[in-house]
Predict the 3D structure of the following.
Amino acid sequence: MQRREFLALAGVAGAVSLTRPWHGLLNAAATGVPAVGRAPLLFPRVVSPAALTLAARVHEVEIAPGVRAEAWSPGDGPVGPTIRTRTGDTARITFENGLPEPSILHWHGLRVPEAADGGPRLAIDSGASYRYEFPVIDRAGTYWYHAHPHGRTGVQTYRGMGGLLLIGDAAEDALGLPSGEREIPLLIQDRRVGADGVFAYEPAMHEQMEGFFGDTPFGNGVRLPTLEVATTTYRLRVVNATTSRILRLALSNGKPMTLIGNDGGLLPAPVRLTQLDLGTGERADLLVDFSALKVGTRVALLSAKFASPARMGGMGMGGGMGGGMGGMGRMGAGGVPQGGEMRLIEFEVTRAVKPMPWRAAKFPSIVPLDVSRAARTRVFRFESAMMRHGINGRAFDMERIDEQVRFGETEVWTFVNDGPFPHPVHMHEVQFQVVERIGGRATLMPWERGWKDTVLVFPGERVSVIATFDRHRGRYLMHCHNLVHEDGGMMMNYEIG
Ligand code: C2O
Ligand code: CU
Ligand code: CU
């Protein structure tokens, strides 16, 4: 199998002006390269957090062989390196902000002290650096990190300020999961690349309501990625790092995949399914078996077509928008609408090998939290109106503490969506269990078992989750992870004290 590491164009980066990115260079470089050619998937460099510096900068990267674009990312690649660690380790990470504006990194899904959580209040100026130190206490799982400054999380993450953060532990080791070249990190994004090589991010008015949708899928910062595979089982560690897109993961041949984990690590048991939905911020740990395929076969991991859950009308935003409306006029200029099909990555079977079938072993059990023992229930309404997004009628205020939670208690939080857009609701500092969904889809999905930190709430739904706030005291965030909504104010502070 060919594993390609793109060259870091370090020598060029110093010459790139922060405000005027190398106009013309892309066109010259792209000569002879088909505009929509696919590119080998990049495996980001794997790093340990034991003594790590993540230096964010604006630099020129290859998004396909010979095709360059301007990324904002930590390190040399088009997205950040893959951080690999184990439960019980200590992370000592220095973030250097070489971006032309304030930034900060957040470790999504990890339970860390407030000072290490990386919310907007901790953002540092351009040129400054920030030291994180925290013990890794979470279970083995597929976590990630991304920029989280006030009002700029969307654009920075979109341009490359994100990466995977994989935790391992003994329970996971015992399962003998595919590893090495059969373990594929996959940070999925959708972007629009302008003719000037800049990842265009200028949400129009209607996009400031529904969300921002790219026209092209990226995997680990590579445009239209492909991967050569052998006739055996692979483990895909998928992060939905899009700005606003719900991914309906499915194989183009319709064959089932095995879901073994989600946001907070391994499920209590593996699940076979032909498709699953991931909102922005959610993760899927999937086994895909190519052993029945012949050499030469191509199969794609899709975001399969679906009817957008957005409900238009009554918002005074005019017509002609929204994925549910066909979206013909939006292709190109406006990106692929919510629910439009995207071929996220193409797998090409190039080698026959003796299959290494993976047999389900015993998964670590998960004890359900008892709703009858919750100290209280809080209700949060997610609302959008007039270009503003808020929770319980308020837009985010960095300094205001919206909810006080008592340390050590277990609570039920109910997310209510009577508005027109789906919301992937995320809580910092806890992993929760999804208790129930009333209205809308009216059921819990098989991929919503186990521990999660982000859950999709469609229009018309009330989704309840249960969590115990017993790790750290301090101020944390709860917000919609549609980054346009988050930046638009759909976020609040809660304090555990
Ligand atoms: Cu990925 Cu505040 O979150
Ligand atoms: Cu988070
Ligand atoms: Cu939202």
User: Anything to note?
Assistant: Residues 33 and 215 are 19 Å apart (CA to CA). The helical segments are 10-13, 25-30, 153-158, 170-173, 205-210, 483-487. The first helix runs from residue 10 to 13. The two ends are 52 Å apart (CA to CA).
